[in-house]
Amino acid sequence: MQTFHPRHFAIVPAAGSGSRMGASRPKQYLPLLGRPLIHHALSVLCEAPDIDRVFVVLSIDDTEWARHDWRGLGGKLVPLFCGGATRADSVLGGLRAIAGEASPSDWVLVHDAARPCLAPWHVDKLIRELAGDEVGGLLAVPVADTLKRADAQRHVAATVPRDSLWQAQTPQMFRYVMLRRALEGASAVTDESSAIEAAGLRPRLVQGDATNLKVTYPLDLHLAEWILTNREGIGA
Ligand SMILES: Nc1ccn([C@@H]2O[C@H](COP(=O)(O)OP(=O)(O)OP(=O)(O)O)[C@@H](O)[C@H]2O)c(=O)n1
Ligand SMILES: C[C@](O)(CO)[C@H](O)COP(=O)(O)O
């Protein structure tokens, strides 16, 4: 009997403008250790032995991608100029663009272009822990701080119990057809898991670590540089 092995595709949404960064160009192209920021995560995804192809979703009017040399990342990398108005639109555009290549039960790993400190072991752990899962899941870290809910005047209205609260990261890994249908049916979601949850399913939380931060504000760029330079020393 022939056994079916699902493939793994990465989709990297990179069509954002980086407004909170306040830089002169989208943050995915800001220099980080001599490379465009996005290069770091793409390199890890392209080198992951389990990942078959890496699709980068760019804005339809992106002019910067072509200014850089990506050949060092090898043949798995495919740019798609089909980004949308929101992150979810960009991911959905990517899923639609690869419809001819992906089978319904292939896995899709969606990873933010803005998370440059993705490490090979993050990808390996996610794929290994979710291999036999019906639904899929995401990297995440348990909330470590005491949480406060603010009122309109920024006074503390309540202390929110942090038990069972996790911070969502990426990659988030789901079956192609399940993710596509979930995103087509979802409104205003900020990650893939939310769309899957809205479809009535329960994604699994796979514990990652704080080094896989999202570069959102200028300080994050310095933190990312420090993490990439000192990774061996901090045991991450
Ligand atoms: N229309 C959009 C918006 C965001 N993204 C991508 O989604 C990821 C996470 O989003 P975020 O950090 O919010 O990026 P930006 O939207 O660029 O940032 P900001 O919200 O500060 O403008 C980034 O890799 C970003 O490029 C995208 O592909 N398409
Ligand atoms: C998907 C995500 O990285 C999970 O933390 C995050 O939600 C995306 O960031 P955004 O600022 O909400 O677009």
Task: Reconstruct the topology from this structure.
Layout: E1 8-14, E2 31-32, E3 35-36, H1 37-47, E4 53-58, E5 77-80, H2 87-97, E6 107-110, H3 120-130, E7 136-142, E8 147-150, E9 156-160, E10 166-175, H4 176-185, H5 192-198, E11 204-207, H6 218-230
Parallel strand pairs: 1-4, 1-6, 4-5, 7-11
Antiparallel strand pairs: 2-3, 6-10, 7-10, 8-9
Bound molecules: cytidine-5'-triphosphate and the ligand C[C@](O)(CO)[C@H](O)COP(=O)(O)O.
Cytidine-5'-triphosphate is lined by residues 13-21, 28, 57, 83-87, 90, 112-114, 214, 216.
**Cofactors, ions, other ligands:** cytidine-5'-triphosphate, the ligand C[C@](O)(CO)[C@H](O)COP(=O)(O)O
What is the mean pLDDT? 96
Strand order of the largest sheet: 5-4-1-6-10-7-11
CATH architecture: Alpha-Beta Complex
Order of helices and strands: EEEHEEHEHEEEEHHEH
Structural write-up:
A 7-stranded mixed beta sheet has the order 5-4-1-6-10-7-11, with helices on both faces. A hairpin with a 2-residue loop joins strand 2 and strand 3 (35-36). The termini are far apart. Helix 2 (87-97) crosses helix 4 and helix 4 crosses helix 5. It has a single domain, classed as Spore Coat Polysaccharide Biosynthesis Protein SpsA, Chain A (Alpha-Beta Complex). The protein has 236 residues and is of the alpha/beta class. Helix content is 27%, strand content 23%. It binds cytidine-5'-triphosphate and the ligand C[C@](O)(CO)[C@H](O)COP(=O)(O)O. Cytidine-5'-triphosphate (CTP) binds at residues 13-21, 28, 57, 83-87, 90, 112-114, 214, 216.
